[in-house]
Amino acid sequence: MNFDDLKETWRTEMNIVNTGEAISVDQIRQQAETLDRKILISIWTEIFACGVLLTAVVLIVGLGPEMNLAMQLSMAIMAFMSLYVPYRLIQARRTAETDNWTLAGRINREIKKLEQEGALIDRVASWYLAPLSVAIVIGSWGGHAQQHNTWVPDTSLLLYWAAVGLIGLGILFYNRQIRQGKIQVVLDRLRGLRAELERDAD
Amino acid sequence: MPFDFEQTLAANQNRIRAIANNYADTGFSDDLYQEILLQLWRSRKSFKASASIDTWIYKVALNTAFTYQRKSIRNRKINEQAISEGEVKQVEGGYSNREILMLFMQTLNDIDKSVLMMYLDGLSAADISETLGLSANAINVRVNRLKAKFEEQFIS
Prior knowledge:
Mean pLDDT of chain B: 81
Strand content of chain A: under 5%
Order of helices and strands of chain B: HHHHHHHHH
Shape of chain A: elongated
Largest sheet of chain B: none
Largest interface: A-B, 46 and 59 residues
Radius of gyration of chain B: 16 Å
Structural class of chain B: mainly alpha
Strand content of chain B: under 5%
Structural class of chain A: mainly alpha
Distance between the termini of chain B: 49 Å
Helix content of chain A: over 70%
Number of helices of chain A: 6
Number of strands of chain A: 0
Oligomer: heterodimer
Helix content of chain B: over 70%
Radius of gyration of chain A: 26 Å
Number of strands of chain B: 0
């Protein structure tokens, strides 16, 4: 047998693998609609969660007890975060849409998207954990000062801060695991595919 | 002539199924097949009437297959190690043409496998280059390399 004899073998193979079931376009359309609905629900859930946080901040500031400067600052950071975090997430997921359906084009697009996601996770401490922790510490400190008439933290407040720090470290560790275990593995593979594609490129 | 999606799918069902079988890990080919159909539906508006349907099918199917593999990369790495070229040389005698084709495909990387599938399916170097985003010259180089590799493993 020579190389071009494989053409006939491939044609036969395509007929063998056909199980004969009819393709239902209605079923495909339904699946596409379900997928679109899930994506939409996911986006709106995030927007709703941010809206709830923002509303809670506004209600606490407007209707809650009088606040000292530290508590007001904490609330301001929380309000800012409720808008900034979804903005960063949306920015990271956004990749330039293109009509370039070539494999090289799609691989490059996928690599760019994953690099953006990876960069966001790499900097999670600066754009998410640090401001959130600062807001929690300042808010709880201000609340403690207002309640006990002293800015000197007691043991329970120190323990609370320690717990906040530990949770922050846990989130940081979890995100790094995702970065190494999922995103990096896929990125390495896609970069390998790109390198293989470019091997004979003119 | 208007683009009839249902008719296009029916005419290319075997091709799509074969691509799914060759890129999915064991037990996942039905999932990949469904995923390719879904992506064809979602990208149907990007199909231009002047373009070749074969090329469009391969573009979408291969793009889907390569990104779909993300879900089971670890399994795939194990599969890739399962058959080495050395093993093919040792067991080549007595195999049917179909088995030889499958064995040969398993020794190829994903890009070469896609080039081989399209070449065997009768696509021109220009069509393959349009699908992969490489020059026609680069495709010819790869096809010649595939021929040499096949001859080395199964003919000489």
